[in-house]
C-alpha cells in the first residue's frame, strides 16, 4: 500500500504522486494532507505539513474513515522518520557462523630463552 510522505500512514488508496509527477488529490485520512493541493497549490513541503500536524497534537483527520485499531501517531511518525536499522543475521541451526569485518590483532612475538642460552 502507498505511504503518506507527511505522516508515514501506510495505507493510502493510491500513490501520492502519479508517475507523471502530478498529485493524486487523495486526502491522507491520518494527517489530512491533500496531494496535489497542499503541496502544489499551497506550496507546503512534506516537512512543513508534518510540523504543523505534530504541533496540533497529531490528530486523526478523517471523519469517515476510522483510525486503525491500536493506532499510535507518535509511533507511526517515529518509525517513518527513522532509517531502517540493519538486523543481525540469524544463524540457522547446524550452519557455520560467519565472521564479518573482524579484525584480529597479533600480539608481538616474544623470544624465549631456553636454559642453556639458546633462543627459540
Protein topology:
Layout: H1 46-55, H2 73-81
Please describe what this structure looks like.
The protein is mainly α and 120 residues long. It has one domain (1-84). 16% of the residues lie in helices and 0% in strands. The chain contains 2 helices and no strands. The chain has helices spanning 46-55, 73-81. It is globular, with a radius of gyration of 28 Å. The protein starts with 45 loop residues before the first helix and ends in a 39-residue tail after the last helix. 15% of the residues are buried. Residues 97-112 have low confidence and may be disordered.
> Total number of β-strand segments?
0
What is the oligomer described by this structure? single chain
- What value does the Rg take, in angstroms? 28 Å
How many helices in DSSP terms?
2
Largest sheet composition: none
Which series of helices and strands comes N to C? HH
Proportion of beta-strand residues: under 5%
Shape: globular
Q: Termini, distance in Å?
A: 70 Å
Share of helical residues: 10-25%
Low-confidence spans: pLDDT under 50, at least 5 residues?
97-112
Mean pLDDT: 81
Instruction: State the secondary-structure class.
Output: mainly alpha
How many domains in all?
1
Summarize the structure.
Helix content is 16%, strand content 0%.
Amino acid at each position: 500500500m502507498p505511504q503518506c510522505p507527511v505522516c508515514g500512514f501506510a495505507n493510502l488508496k493510491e500513490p501520492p504522486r502519479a508517475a507523471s509527477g502530478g498529485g493524486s488529490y487523495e486526502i491522507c485520512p491520518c494527517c489530512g494532507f491533500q496531494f496535489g493541493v497542499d503541496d502544489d497549490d499551497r506550496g507546503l513541503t512534506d516537512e512543513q505539513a508534518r510540523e504543523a500536524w505534530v504541533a496540533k497534537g497529531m490528530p486523526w483527520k478523517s471523519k469517515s474513515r476510522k483510525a486503525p485499531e491500536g493506532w499510535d501517531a507518535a509511533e507511526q511518525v517515529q518509525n517513518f522518520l527513522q532509517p531502517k536499522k540493519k538486523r543481525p543475521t540469524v544463524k540457522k541451526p547446524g550452519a557455520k557462523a560467519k565472521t564479518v569485518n573482524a579484525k584480529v590483532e597479533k600480539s608481538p612475538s616474544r623470544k624465549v630463552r631456553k636454559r642453556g642460552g639458546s633462543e627459540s
